[in-house]
């Protein structure tokens, strides 16, 4: 099950102002315990996934804002399984000229799926 796609931004386009550059895993939420989420993608029945560790950190990070793909902690290693194995729709938009790093091109991951955290009975109480 693969979702998401690669999009090339228009020349001169810039990522949204809330896009985060992740320098270390501590830049994301610290909670890595197992958690369940409701995933809603256009045209298919909503479904539940359960993730933990870095996949949870990345998913919750993407729920807050887009994340730069060229991070220092290999965000793509978590994004690709979220897309392929869990069915989360995440797109990568390619932009030109990263002023901070001098890279010719860089990508930004954006969550397309509607994702809702499912609270456990213990958390809901």
Describe this structure in words.
With 125 residues, the protein is an alpha+beta fold. The chain has one domain (6-118). Helix content is 20%, strand content 28%. The chain has 3 helices and 7 strands, in the order βββαβαβββα. The protein has helices spanning 53-64, 76-84, 121-124, and strands at residues 6-8, 35-40, 47-51, 67-68, 90-96, 105-111, 114-118. The strands form 2 sheets. It has a 4-stranded mixed β-sheet. A 3-stranded antiparallel β-sheet has the order 3-2-7. A hairpin with an 8-residue loop joins β5 (90-96) and β6. α1 packs across α2. The chain is globular and about 45 Å long. It starts with 5 loop residues before the first strand and ends with a helix. The model has no long low-confidence stretch (mean pLDDT 90).
Notable features of this structure?
3-stranded antiparallel sheet; 125 residues; 4-stranded mixed sheet; 3 helices; 20% helix; alpha+beta
List the helices and strands and how they pair.
Layout: E1 6-8, E2 35-40, E3 47-51, H1 53-64, E4 67-68, H2 76-84, E5 90-96, E6 105-111, E7 114-118, H3 121-124
Parallel strand pairs: 1-5
Antiparallel strand pairs: 2-3, 2-7, 4-6, 5-6
